[in-house]
What does this fold into?
Amino acid sequence: MQNPYLPYPVRIDEIITETEDKSLKTFKFVFLNPDDEKKFAYESGQFGELSIPGLGEIPIGIASSPMEKGFIKFTVFKTGKVTAYLHAMKEGDIMGVRGPLGHPFPWKTLEGKNIVIIGGGFAFTTLRSSIISILDPANRSKFKDIHVIYGARSPGMLLYKDEVTAWAEREDINMNITVDGTDDPAWKYLTGFVPTITEQKAPPGNDDTYAIVCGPPIMIKFTQPVLDNLGYSHDNILMSLENRMKCGIGICGRCNIGKKFVCKDGPVFTLSQLNQMPKEY
Amino acid sequence: MTEYTDKIKEISKRVLAEGRVEMVIGFRKGSVPMMNQPHLATSAESVDELVWDSNCGLNLANYITDKKGTIGIIAKGCDSRNIVTHVIENKIKRDQLYIIGVPCTGMIDHHKINAMFDSEILTVEESGDQITISGNGFSETKDKQELLQENCTVCTHRNPVEYDELAGNLVEEQKNVDQYASVTKVESLSADEKWNYFEDLLSPCIRCYACRNACPLCYCPTCFVDESRPQWVGKSQDPTDVKTFHLLRAYHCAGRCTDCGACERACPMGIKIREFTKKLNKDCQELYGWEAGLSLDERPPLDTFKTDDPDEFIK
Amino acid sequence: MKLIKIDQQSWNTGIEKAKSAYRVFGPVKEKNDHEFKLLEPNEMPDVHCQNTRLSPKSIIYPQSQIMFTYSLDESKEDCRIMKEVENVKSPMAIIGVRPCDALAFPIVRKNFDTPEYQDTYWIKAYEATTFVGLACNNACGTCFCTSAGTGPFGEEGLDVLIIADGDDLYAKPITPKGESFIQTAGWTMKAEASIESRIEELKTSAESSVTSSVPTDQLKNKTTLELYDAPFWEQEAFSCINCGTCTYVCPTCWCFDVQDETHGKSGIRMRNWDSCMFPLFTNHASGHNPRNAKHERLRQRFMHKLKYYVDKYDNGIQCVGCGRCIRLCPVNIDIRKICDKMNNFDADSCVCEATSS
It folds into this structure.
């Protein structure tokens, strides 16, 4: 019997400060036992529990892609006790990771489909993972058109800036990078809130087009009617939820929404599913 | 006290009908013996559920904390003192309230009564100062005085101190009670004996926080035991953490506790939680001549100061 | 049915013998109430206890349980690496488990032992334990086990059922685990065949002593969102003080919190019972709380037990009818009444009554 609460020991290999306000950092971990990397076989959309002895655990979406080997990455917003401590840790420090947890985006269903990825703020992490996976030469031909709408408050708050701007130069992905506002004359991308940009840039909905939406509640609230107007069926809108979690495996009881656990049955749900569930998230 | 019920209903219906209040908070009969339930009545129909008897030992001031609107509230002596404390501490405004005062002759102690019988108690009936306790194959009638909650046996404020209308005639206050007999006993113990006494007292605690949550004084938005930054107290059953919770909670209540007994009544494990708060009440009495909740015009001793304080620190 | 007769003498010696092979727990009166305790040598379980104040769940699933230890000593090789704590060292036996409490273990197992994940701590403790039940001859006024999938002589979750007829005890082995317990205790006397009808009589009489019944037949047919939006939650939650009593005394409540504690350079990762009644249970780090109001938390508790569980497992309700929450709730919130409201709720004929919060 495998103890599902036992984290894999990892070493912090690299820490990247992502945003100008330093509230978001990406941690690149390397497994101390190489075999653990195989056990941690994941798909884009899943999450892990970052474990810091003495502080506790936090559930964080996996920002790296399974196509990237030798490490896993998590981008963490500094908000509570554990994340504040993590932000103060250094490269070389030892901690733990448990996972992969939850269900990924439904990649089998998405094969042969157009995908519109809509992300806002620091919820872009599993979307980065997804885009890396999709754009991998081994995978790109499995999907049709890929649109991305990614918004941040300001240019300095964009995550993975080098990568997203590089994607904007590519032919095989339709990138729409936007900020709420900026006075930077060098800003060469879009300005406007995510729902507005979605209205302008997203392709119309049909059976062959899926939207993946991750972002703050306010963005989701205003993006949903836009997708409705564009003709997206609620079965074709995928969302990734967050709730307070501890165990991450559907046992400790706190993250439920009705009879579903966000950790174990989610975090990815279709909007159709969410429509049938209490609004407890 | 059961005769108050009709009067309570009459007043409640009147103040609701006149629009004086939007709701009345009182008790309705519970589904198990000796456990009446706090009840919010907003219509004449729901007022008809209101009752009054010796099983109304919870403190209804707990239900008006930061509440909006105009509220009728049934208040025995201790409830009225906690209402006063709430007004002083800005948890409610006096003019939001229509206080229906109930002169009290004490509440019966369900823990004590349950412990008196080996079999389950199925009914407890009250007639004047006689209480009849029955179960399968037994029925005993006892004087209510024998069955009172301990805080009620030493209560010297049975009449409400603040009210708009009374549901019955004022009762005679108890005289010559030794309010702090239990504290004096503990004070006389050696340090080791005290330690053992408190250890034993708190050993059944399951940290359900019923004592805290039944207490009208415990309205902090985040209790110190729930703080995570910094985390003051561990969350386990470690005896040190359990004691820390109880001792600190008692100190938060110092100079504010009315000895209403709601904490003890609520405790599912029957812990005598008042052993702590009572000691602080005694200190406040001895140091400041203070009893909580007797006047709307005076603040509790620990949140005020006097320029003529006899101690040096103020000068 | 093979029944073993146990007289008072062999009961006492049997329990003592069992103590050499098992850690034996049983109901003992402490202060004013009975609780399950690890029995000392020569200490006997009190078979006259109607039921313990707390359920025996903490024997399998302690309120505070250490899961891992770790060191923060940088000079050590295993610094910051979690090490599993073995929580079960020897077989256990719990004597005097009432059938309601026994049924709670298979219910709770659905949570801890899933196809995807096995909670090693709970499962090891559960598997190491022999459940020796005690049939109820007289139900409490708050018992409603017969509405909750069991009864005073219910056997589910038990390895042995002990039936008391006056001073005579009869043991009915239910599982191989139970048989080996009986063997260890040295109880070998076969009961006379006529006792079977006597036991049927006791069972019938015990069942008729259960005076509370709660209808649960319609819960499955209700729509989750309609029940969720029912107008009675705020009214029913008015008296609730959001303490953890109902959840902590409940044999089927299983939620927990995970906490790290460090002393000096060494520490533990532990779990502690948690309660859906506490605001902190679901509070996000951002401050947002999906179940912020007290009626939302009360609704979660009852919806979980009486709707979500029902729908998820198709195994009845997540309640065994022990009545502890009814007896111990400081403000008299009564699951029978709420279950009744849920079971009878008709969203179409519902006239919404405005209540203030």
User: Anything to note?
Assistant: The radius of gyration of chain B is 20 Å.
